[in-house]
Amino acid sequence: MPNLTTAAAVLIFVATYTIVAIGKVPLYRIDRAGAALLGGSLMVGAGVLSLDEAYRAVDLNTITLLLGMMIVVANLRVSGFFHLVNGWIATHVRHPLALLAAVVLASGVLSAFLVNDAICLVMTPLVLEVVGRVKRNPIPYLLAIAMSSNIGSVATITGNPQNILIGSISGIPYRTFLAHLGPIALLGLFVDWAVLHWIHLRNGNETNQQPAPEKEKEEEERGVTRAFEIHPAFPMIVSLGVLAGFLFGFPPALVAAAGGAVLLMQRRNSPQAIYGDVDWSLLMLFLGLFLIIGGAQQAGITQQLLGVAERLNLHNSVVFTAVVTLLSNIVSNVPAVMLLKGLIPQFHDPRTAWLMLAMSSTLAGNLTITGSVANIIVVEKARGEAHIGFLDYMKIGIPVTLATLAIGLVWLHFVHY
To answer: CB-based burial of residue 137 (10 Å sphere; 0-12 exposed, 13-18 middle, 19+ buried)?
Structure first.
């Protein structure tokens, strides 16, 4: 590759990842997704990638699986499934510790099998509604949504966007992924509940249940009735069928696409409402980053990164986890995984390295508000009703992240192998 083209590839690569780290370009409205798409286009325009090479650089399995799961989750939301969950919690769970446990469990389990960003999007307003009815401080419950969705999503390929990418590239079967990382998620959810309880609820400030006034109780009952009247049965059946397809070993992208297609054919939900719930910017981010990394490979940048990895001794699981955690909090976890995906096949045990990458990039998202998109969604959706400061978040995020990463390291390095 000519030196001028290589220099262009390096410049585009560095500029794009800088914008991804910062989040925006001063004086312009371009965001991470726009920067990735622009950078990818420049890789083609500068001659770093031909059109054929650009097409081959995009992993269509990842895009298809992500889009299919977004359609499935959108149908569950529009049909009222999440209102159903909210209604059950509102009418059956009152004690603060039990309510916290219910939020942790619901967010974690749903995120394990559905994309966690979407779960945060729909759960945040619903949980704010529940805690408002019972007169609770919303902060610990909002933190529970964000952190539990990250922790729960580590369990499966479909839990979050970076796991979808890892699952598509690594070829690790869905059940194998679940068997290796599921126990880490379960233990992590308990850690999350314990830390939130210790810091926010142990002083007993919220242990005395204040019964909701009769009017609020009537509104609760009407809300639950409305949830049942929405009839989410068909989307639930299809979603269970998609999950069964994953567990039986069918190609995840095919299963998700088929499930999404079936749900789009029903008459009850408008396709426009479903399309409105699809995170098109995330899909554009993936497309752009595929082209950026494809160009970096063509220009030899990834080989240089491999040399850096050797010098950093990334084959050491502790060092690898620390680097992934740091990188995920600088550029976010999806760009971090996209950057590292070319290095993993060079490891002496690629399967373990893929699982370690999934574990560390996901759990690292709990360190700061900006560590994952899920955290940002919760903070932004709660704005106006509850304020979560950067340091307030880290007070919970640091112990939860360190404890869950330690659990993941011990399990993957010492117990499971």
So the answer is: middle
